[in-house]
Design a protein that fits this description.
2 domains; mainly alpha; 6 helices; single chain; two-stranded antiparallel ribbon
């Protein structure tokens, strides 16, 4: 029975540890990764179940019945949906314009500043919130 070997960066061949042992030795990292995995599942994968649910009519008692696109036809037929859609589109366009124009104006302003100390200080103050915790 041959043992699996791996080449190290120094060129020395060593036996590779079994997967179980590598997992056990790195269990601390897996424990630290667990909250990220839970967060990913809850906020990214769980909502995808809603796509399946949208094609069924669920009742508290009994099995769900497949309705196909009936819920979507009903939603698109209401005036409230189209009002909300237009408002969302309008707000998105306005936000896009305001953020891009203001970013260009601030960049030009910083580029044209003559005092290097003031320029670097303002750049730091503007970028500082990216390094601060959300809890602050």
């Amino acid at each position: 029975m041959s043992k699996k070997t791996v080449m190290t960066s120094t060129g020395v061949e060593v036996r590779e540890k079994p997967l179980k042992l590598r997992i056990w030795n790195n269990r601390g990292y897996y424990v630290m990764f667990l909250p990220v995995l839970i967060f990913l599942f809850i906020f990214n994968y769980w909502p995808m179940i809603g796509i399946k649910w949208s094609f069924y009519d669920y009742k508290p008692v009994g099995s769900p019945s497949f309705v196909g696109f009936a819920h979507f036809q009903k939603m698109f037929a209401t005036a409230a949906f189209w009002t909300a859609f237009k408002n969302t589109l309008w707000l998105s366009i306005i936000k896009l314009i305001i953020t891009n124009v203001s970013a260009v104006v601030v960049s030009i302003f910083l580029n044209e500043m003559g005092n290097l100390f003031a320029k670097k200080t303002l750049q730091t103050i503007i970028y500082l919130p990216h390094f601060m915790s959300w809890a602050v």
